[in-house]
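Sequence in, structure out. Go.
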Amino acid sequence: MNTYVKKSVCPYDCPDACGLLIETDGTNVISVKGDPDHPVTRGLICRKMQNYEKDIHSPERIMTPLKRVGEKGLADSFCPITWDEAIHEICSKWKSIGEQYGFNSIMGYSYAGTMGIIQRKFGEAFFARMGAATTVRTICSSAKGAAIKHVMGHFHDWNASHIPEADVLILWSANPVANRLHAVPYIKQARKNKAKVVLIDVYSHDSASLCDEVILVKPGTDVILMLAMMHVLEKENLIDHTFIEAYTTGYDALREAFRGCTPKYASGICGVPAETIHSLALLYGNASCPLILPGSGMSRYSNGSAAYRHLFALLALTGAWAKGGGTCCVSGSGDHVRSDLVSHPELIDPKARKINMNQLSLALTEDDRIKSLYVFNSNPAVMTPDQQGVSKGLSREDLFLVVHDRFMTDTALYADIILPATFSVEQDDICYSYGNPHLQASWQTIPAPGACKSNLDVFRLLAEGMGFEDDIFRKTAKEMIDGLIDSDEFFLFDITEEQRELIKKGDPITVPQPDVMDFGTPDKKIHLADLPAGYTPVSDQKYPLRMVNSHNPWSLNSNFAYREELMKSRGPLTMKMHPDDARARGIEDGDLCYAYNDYGKITVQIRIIDGILPGTVNASGVYRKAHTFGDGNFNSLCGPNLTDDGEAAALNTQSIEIVRKEE
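Output:
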């Protein structure tokens, strides 16, 4: 067998966008390895991608369009049809719905099933052209983004390679071992350079091994910890007033919020001992190059955007940016390209109905309900908050549901039409990293099997079926990518001709480290007054335990759910809790229990750990129904709540109770 190797990019929702080497015989993928010559990821890939070919060639892949002929929710309710039949049925149904209810009754639902710009973003242009409801895609980190916009304007921070320069590094609500793998060597180097590394989070996880100290905080109380640190900084004369005067506005208003927030007062709320708060503030305030690597976890509360606003205020008080510190790994190469040239927001009708993706359950069940849903790059039956409400909506016989996917997902089980989708190696795309400074084209490596088609190719067929004659629907993915690379508009940095040629060849390029002192507000200053007035508690206080969702290293959202060895390693649907909480409920390690609140009731297995505060439980990963105990996953306990700004999912806001399941 003759094989050869082509460069590619990991397409999944991870900040690293690893460079890959795909060994192929031209028809099959033989193996997948990391690209050792990649300037950032340097050959290191996660355990999930090391056997990517098993997903690509899985016997469970859907290879032809399918039409439902039986009951919703059953895998044997489908029969094969042709692409012509599928496109005709979809477009005929959409035209009928448009005439009867208006095209605002149709919704395209997607997120980050692939992070390639073409295959991810072009669907937005299609539905905007149709006049469909505008989907507000904010399930992940938009609360963080809104905070950055208010306080910092457009924002550039340090690349991971800068981490060894820090003398104090705080991993705040971040678990780089799980989801920022390529920052780990730099963190280890920082420790070798005698930096003090501190983890601040709601539970102790894999990244604790990288740290000198672990500080556990109660969920949703990060703001009160930050305010108490600010209080100590002022008391100990560690505030950089020269920086405040030159580069900020609104200090007096911020001071009113922290002046009464003593460590003793804050400790009673956030659970961190007063002496720990005091020593943490001194450590940070006395650092010559203080650096914070923040994760998105603390932004996923009803007060999550406020947490990020106060984080940037804390950085400003010490003048961290002027010292070579600040934050790292928050901004990536996605901030240096124009994906709007693919999504075409100018096509959106300003009067179009807007539906937040986190409130899909309401959109499917309220009186003015959606009549047709097209799902791609997502799996809302397991991924979207209020799982019970979403399932109820997807079960509607009058909902015309189309799902474009590679597997018979929990969402696809409810579909009227299923369209077979491609993997990244079977399509053309261009990818950026949202946590690192590199870009790379991902050119097709092998032909798509069976009747599988990419997102772009399906939208081109649907556009033709709907009668759209716009030029944007006539271009292939390769033509679009070539046009972007040659464009003077796509790149928001000074790209060289040599770099353009490298991208065309499939090689990665890096974006130069931007000036972190170039604050993007109109007055070029950090806006400290643009903050909520101090600390606001998390909104849901009904039940005694706070559920915190986190990333699982054996899966990624609902991806890799069809790789049996990964699912076996991940284990059953598990919640971690403190020994005191378990003892009070008569629960022992390994017990099956009911976890419940007003949104749902599910069966979970309990693991008892010391590295978590009483009152907090940790739920890790997204599980398809086949891998649960039959009554739902963690999103069954999450409501359609939104964050205080940015309209993100407040996934960690819900309170719950847990009781032992009697046999």
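Check: DSSP finds 21 helices and 27 strands in the chain. The chain has a mean pLDDT of 96.
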